[in-house]
Amino acid sequence: MAGEKTEKATPKKREEARKKGGGVARSQDLTGAVVMLVGLTAIHAFGGKLVAHCRETMDWTLHLIGHPEVVSARGLPWVIMTVLQHVALAILPIVGACAIAAIVVNVAMVRPKLNLHGLRMDAKRLNPVTGFKNIYGPNSLFEGGKSILKLLAVGTIVAIALIPMIPSLGGMIGMTPQQLCSAIVGDIYGIGMRAAVAYLLIGIIDIVYQRYRTEKSMKMDKQEVKEEAKQQALPAEVRGAMRRRQMQNSRARMMAAVPEADVVVTNPTHYAVALKYDGSNPAPEVVAKGVDLVAARIRELATDAGVPIVPDPPLARALHASVEVGHQIPEELFGAVAQILAFVYRMAGKRQRAAA
């Protein structure tokens, strides 16, 4: 079937996807499972020192209660900062182990590469309608269902390990806190490890699925592969000249369409988007757009042709970020564009009546 994406992504497409922050499979479940396993192991290894350190800190704090002159001399902030420092030193080995595990597993999943593209301002991220779709879209519903299944799987494994222990827990009534901790710490560690191993299996399944999903989304059709092969076969100078010629022709066509537009929405100085609505399409179409010098040229052509220019910074930025030239505006912008077109048509009608 023509246009069917059946070919694997080429290295060039993968590299372009990486530059845009995509094209790489990630699994939060795998990261969480590894961190959980490492965290439990670290607690098992350093738990005794952690408890001893906290006990010493508590003894020191209670000792200060009997010597208020020390607190008065040094101040309460000194006491709080000293306690926080002791607590931080006590948990540092566990927190450090978890942090290192998270970094290692993410580096293993994603090839490290400096990418500043994600730091750029993107108006699409500020669009509330797009954000609503991301939160309540099909992918989010799938992730929600997957989370419920994970909870049920891990909860079932924990319940299977915990239920046989319930009769013995009744015999621990009357134990001191220290005796109770000594009696159940091993059981708690065992249950936690079972849950962590179950979570790890879920994470492995998830990363396999994420890689399959990423590869499927990156697939290309045969025509795309052929076009890319042709481009790669040409010298770099020729490819650059072709790209420049294509950009020049595209910009010339875009500028030629400005006098035919119904309205130009501006920022008012940095952005300019020309819209046309002739009734043949279900929605207005963007016929030209640009920033800075290109935007200035669009405003100049619109002024010469008598096309109304309406300043609306939020709408101009949203149109420029979300709609390509030659495409219709998205549904979430219908209302804002309709108001501007209605205003333009009213003003045009008033001028016609005045002229008559």
Walk me through what this model shows.
The protein has 356 residues and is mostly helical. Helix 2 packs antiparallel against helix 4. It has a four-stranded mixed beta sheet, sandwiched between helices. 69% of the residues lie in helices and 6% in strands. The two termini are 58 Å apart.
Question: What's the short version?
Answer:
This protein has 356 residues and is mainly α.
The sequence of SSEs as H and E is HHHHHHHHHHEEEHEHH
Q: From the helix content, strand content and strand pairing, which structural class follows?
A: mainly alpha
* Distance, first to last CA: 58 Å
Relative strand content: 5-15%
Shape: elongated
Estimate the helix proportion, in percent.
Answer: 55-70%
Largest sheet: 4 strands, mixed
Roughly what is the average pLDDT, rounded to an integer?
79
Q: Determine Rg (CA atoms, Å).
A: 32 Å
Q: Which spans have pLDDT < 50 for at least 5 consecutive residues?
A: none
Total helix count? 13
Q: How many structural domains can be distinguished in the coordinates? A: 2
Number of E-type strands: 4
Query: Looking across the biggest beta sheet, what order are the strands in?
Result: 3-2-1-4
Keywords:
356 residues; mainly alpha; name from scop; 2 domains; 4-stranded mixed β-sheet; 13 helices; 69% helix; elongated
Q: How is the topology of this model organized?
A:
Blueprint: H1 11-19, H2 28-65, H3 68-74, H4 76-109, H5 128-136, H6 138-162, H7 166-169, H8 177-218, H9 222-233, H10 236-257, E1 263-266, E2 271-276, E3 285-291, H11 293-305, E4 309-311, H12 313-322, H13 334-355
Parallel strand pairs: 1-4
Antiparallel strand pairs: 1-2, 2-3
Helix pairs in contact: 2-4, 2-8, 5-6, 6-8
